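Case study B.
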Amino acid sequence: MANTTVQQDTQVKEPIISFGKKERKLLLDPLNDNNPITVQVLGICSALAVTTLLLKAVTMALAVIFVLAFSNLFTSLLRNYIPKEVRMIAQLIIIATLVTVVALALKAWDYPLYKELSVFVGLIITNCIVMGRLEAFALANKPWPSFIDGIGNALGYSIILIMIATVRELFGKGTIMGWKIIGPTSEYLLNTSSLSWLSWYQPNNLMVLFPSAMFVLGVIIWLHRSWNRKLIDVS
Amino acid sequence: MQKYRYTIIFVLILSAVSALVLAGMYAGLKEAHQKNELLFKKRSVLRSIEHMLNRPVSKMSDAEVDQLFHEKIRQYVLDAEGNILPEEKLQSLGFVEDPAIRIDRVKESKKPLEEQLFPLYVFEKDGKKYYILEVLGKGLWDLIWAFVALEEDLNTVAGIAFDHAAETPGLGAEIKDNPNFAKQFIGKKIYDQNGNYRSITVRKGGAKDPLFEVDAISGATLTCDGVTEMLYRGIKYYEPFFKKVQSNQIEI
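Model:
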């Protein structure tokens, strides 16, 4: 920790906001080589809970991007003032405040969505990715890199969340973002003889239940590792 | 003590700033929140009579919903004996505008039955009255609720709109998402020929009695059983009111 601060302080007149090679690495690393879900295996509980529908996953992803970027930024701004013995409490206050801000804003902006998501938005507070980034990065780095790091990690989380949700919604409900793609029409519920050309597929009920998220996630991790050979030695 | 002074002051200041931000935001958005809650409920009420309106409720703007509600729907609040609460009583309870909408059945259902209040909406079209009741029950995971529109005979179902807090998408959530589930209820009866209370049963494996039963959703048996229970118990709460209307004690 001390090392990085000293290093940065010696670089005189470095602009506060810049976007160079270092920032690009901070932003893109968590999408692939250091993905919080598939490589670090954090934030699994919300990957289970909010991935039944794509719309829920996208909203959750946006909320996490906001919370993680800004809690990283604020923690980093306060990093030299936060007393060691209460740093976790201070981080929690920052996260909880931001999460409540998101929940209040969502309630005013899209009430039906808030009704569906409210519990899970509140649970961002306990998302290990957020606390993990504050501890591992924001406490030891300047505000701008921390902000970028927050966005990068939240994006890495979002990509996986959206992948899982797409698979689950498509095969579990036959829709994407609520649009019918495969499976029988709603008429089928009442009249099994009302078939259309899409109805060869029967929605797989397992896909909308929680265990399927684990299976899908497992497959994604497998594919990720067989595609990105670097990761195999990491674990 | 001296050692911890800075820590304590730091935590106090951080908490105070956080509390200030949240309190300010809460106060600033309170009006929008309340408006959203009322509109959400108004849409649900209108969904129960959607097929009698010109266009689908989901296509209407917030202003349209408000206007339609204001023009076409009358609101009443009933007590457990089926009496309509008079205007003064409502005012003393603080329900000035939209009295029925402001009744929270979740809170009411926790009180003893004699003290509970029930919302009632009356919609008129082509000289016919439709009574809309609210019922509340339990699905598989959490609460489910519905608005039931009855025809003037207080026996035939004219329409129904379900909603739920957390049923499984594609299974239990189909009570709301699949328009054909709610459509089945139209024309069903809640009393048999002799005037005995029957309510409507959601039957697994297909409806047997065309007057009192509808088909269940496969894979969502527990939610469907919840619907049956909700309708049986929920509509029964309004029975004293039905009796009073039928014996002309109440004029609406």
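The two ends of chain A are 25 Å apart (CA to CA). The remaining cases will be described in the next quarterly update.
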